[in-house]
Amino acid sequence: PFAAAFAAQGPFSSSVLAYFMIFMALVTLPTLVWGPTAPYGRFSQTSGWGWLVPNRLAWITQEIPSLAVPVVWVAFFATGDQLANVRGVNLVLMSLFIVHYTNRDLIFPLRLRAGKPTPFLVWLLAFVFCVYNGFMQTRYLLADAPVVEPSPSTYLGVGIWAAGFFINLHSDHILISLRKDKKKGEYKIPRGGMFEYVSAANYFGEIVEWTGYAVASGFALPCVAFAVFTLANLFPRALAYHRFYLERFPSYRRLNRKACIPFLV
């Protein structure tokens, strides 16, 4: 089964998976912009989306495939040829992917304070995406990607990724700190860092991260697909956050913040 999954052609090739992800991004974006807001976090609902998963447990278990798939595959199932592929730009890309998800899966959830639970259906959709994308990225880097040495565009992409990673970490820190002393149902306006420019600085950081990842790859299709889906998934969420602040805080409009992209939207 593992050999078949890494066959050059067929339903599991990284290019086929990437085209399907881009298609799903084109469906997801308008659905989330004009449809219902995904019911997790501050928009969590207690009925209609399945039983509730505690937020810390939900974060760890829904995101862990993104880390487990590449780590387990390389450690236990990769052939000699596949291991030989993990060098040059491919090694850089896999390192960026694993660093992000080490934080997202193992560090970030443990820093969370008590929060609203995640409905099971939302958890399931996130879990399926992480399995899919974890496999697609690993499949590409182990079997499909050419082995090339880093170029100036690689370093540019790594720099963009690092900037996004820092923005994401700093924004998460600000949001977690806000929850320290707040009462149940109370919300505060986040301040500092990129929150001075956008309402969803954490999402902006993650969009920048995976854009940098795509640039570092030389715009390889699976990496671009991931960046496109990240934008399609997080941009509508940022719009919802922006509306939330505008409705909850009458003075918020005077801050002149955009929703997700500084100075634009």
Q: What would your notes on this structure say?
A:
This protein has 265 residues and is mainly alpha-helical. Helix content is 65%, strand content 2%. It contains 9 helices and 2 strands, in the order ααβαααβαααα. The chain has helices at residues 2-5, 14-34, 55-77, 80-85, 89-111, 120-144, 152-178, 201-216, 221-248; strands spanning 52-53, 118-119. Strands 1-2 form a two-stranded antiparallel ribbon. Helix 3 packs parallel to helix 6 (120-144). The model has no long low-confidence stretch (mean pLDDT 91).
Please specify the SSE layout and strand pairing:
Blueprint lengths: L1 H4 L8 H21 L17 E2 L1 H23 L2 H6 L3 H23 L6 E2 H25 L7 H27 L22 H16 L4 H28 L17
Task: Please report which band the strand proportion falls in: under 5%, 5-15%, 15-25%, 25-35%, 35-45% or over 45%.
Answer: under 5%
- Percent helix among the residues? 55-70%
- Which class best fits the helix and strand makeup? mainly alpha
Numbering strands along the chain, what is their spatial order in the largest sheet? 1-2
Instruction: Write down the overall geometry.
Output: globular
Major β-sheet, in short? 2 strands, antiparallel
Mean pLDDT: 91
- Calculate the terminal CA-CA distance, rounded to whole Å: 46 Å
Number of β-strand runs: 2
Reading the helices and strands in chain order gives HHEHHHEHHHH
Q: How many helices? A: 9
